User: Fold these one by one.
Assistant:
Number 1:
Amino acid sequence: NAGVMQNPRHLVRRRGQEARLRCSPMKGHSHVYWYRQLPEEGLKFMVYLQKENIIDESGMPKERFSAEFPKEGPSILRIQQVVRGDSAAYFCASSPRRNHYGYTFGSGTRLTVV
Amino acid sequence: SQQGEEDPQALSIQEGENATMNCSYKTSINNLQWYRQNSGRGLVHLILIRSNEREKHSGRLRVTLDTSKKSSSLLITASRAADTASYFCATDAERDTDKLIFGTGTRLQVFP
């Protein structure tokens, strides 16, 4: 079991470009959560998805950010027209069902906007 | 909104000593979890304690929970240099268990 796989590990984008972050959950896990971590801070919830459904996007910025978890393939967190303030580590976690405690986290994607 | 706060923000100890980290939160919870994060890596789940539990052990880890004070502590006994990491508490919200609210973390440095 390869665990939660995130790629790329590091991503550098110029201001105004698009960033696409991928997350492949653990085998058998159909629930995916995205969190953002700013330097020296804890993780902040962004969005919770099940296959083909967004369950809770209360932590997502209203503009430029979107997420999907298609029937086939990884979950994608997409940031359009990136700005310096988007620089952060983005972590994905997965679980086999709702209300399952003790998420498995990926190693994260570190986005740097220059 | 609910937010966890860890105390202290940073802690430096020698190998063999015990390390105690504290976490406070604001609203009612179903459970509280502790995670560890090595520098530049993802989070690893350490231990979960439910709201009806007061103490839990796992190896060299001991977690306590005081729901009346809305606080928890993580004790690492006989620390090792490999315990050097950041430690975060995370709570769910009693009526919304689908997301975790993380604290700001305690950075633990264990010197050999």
Note: Chain B has a mean pLDDT of 90.
Number 2:
Amino acid sequence: GAVVSQHPSWVICKSGTSVKIECRSLDFQATTMFWYRQFPKQSLMLMATSNEGSKATYEQGVEKDKFLINHASLTLSTLTVTSAHPEDSSFYICSAALASLTGELFFGEGSRLTVL
Amino acid sequence: SQQGEEDPQALSIQEGENATMNCSYKTSINNLQWYRQNSGRGLVHLILIRSNEREKHSGRLRVTLDTSKKSSSLLITASRAADTASYFCAQETSGSRLTFGEGTQLTVNP
């Protein structure tokens, strides 16, 4: 099946710093990628839809200036958590849509962010 | 809340038993998907059922969909310890945009 890679898989940073997480589709082109956040023992919450070559569409309540999304190519989307604070500590997961009739999404392995 | 509901929230069974998880949702859907997540890992797609389908099988998995009740169920037959994970349903409304349920934590005891 299609492979989606996230990097880094985990990161620890100091409060106030910015952290960039990459999401790559390794063997297919993804015009659309999605970013989710998951708190411990909770479900995935969609943060934004990332479209190649255009601005991301953010879900209600998600600060676009806080969570910068760039989808510069058909295989790479990045999420930058700016001026991170402890409450931003979470598991961030991306997914990419395979251009087919199945509607199946492929998920990355996730990136665990811990802000001290 | 945009999310659907799943029940039970947690399920503990013995190996060999069947596990049934239920999911309810709120809006019209294109399809409904079930995913599995091992602790601290990404999601693995299990099965997709379209809105015009009522039942689908894949190996030991059986999924049903009742659009009139806006509900779905996932049955895992002859469970194994390796099936221990969280299971999420997700509704696709448009453009591959998924809304996830709250999840069921399944524990299969050897």
Note: Chain A has a mean pLDDT of 90.
Number 3:
Amino acid sequence: DVKVTQSSRYLVKRTGEKVFLECVQDMDHENMFWYRQDPGLGLRLIYFSYDVKMKEKGDIPEGYSVSREKKERFSLILESASTNQTSMYLCASSFWSYEAGGRNEQFFGPGTRLTVL
Amino acid sequence: QKEVEQDPGPLSVPEGAIVSLNCTYSNSAFQYFMWYRQYSRKGPELLMYTYSSGNKEDGRFTAQVDKSSKYISLFIRDSQPSDSATYLCAMSGGNFGNEKLTFGTGTRLTIIP
């Protein structure tokens, strides 16, 4: 069964703290994504990675960085947390294969609700 | 203007009703269209996947794409309380795994028993 796990369901941090959000997938997927989800704004892509040690900026990368040292793990880092980074953070993974019908379905984790005080 | 517009709702309908959820988009390069369902405190999961224009049916769910009008719909027949969730449309220009998806804001749906 497809599984994407995120290290915490709820997290409370203080302004200025360095925050690590971890995501692990057990499907051997090449591609991994970090989104944040806010009411009225939907899912917005922060960063994605299509291979180990590779990363690409999404639509809102400012204030974030990522790390992908192993294929199954993709970390989102908030270097200095701010209150406007209070949000739901969702990790996803995907792969592509002709045999699978060529679909770019993304599989999501349960999310981490981060509150920055 | 957002690339993808979706009515946020909330939408409440009685059990058994037909539900229509819609998205409009502006980027004519979009060719792959998806509907994700997200239950409360869970991540989104893929519900329907379609390519280009036309209809696709899966049980009580029908996805419809009209590329000429840049309009996609999801119909739910014989709606059930278990259909209560937020529905997100998503789309991309290609179908490779590293393609970015552009999401709508989601419509919160409640089916009243």
Note: Chain B has a mean pLDDT of 91.
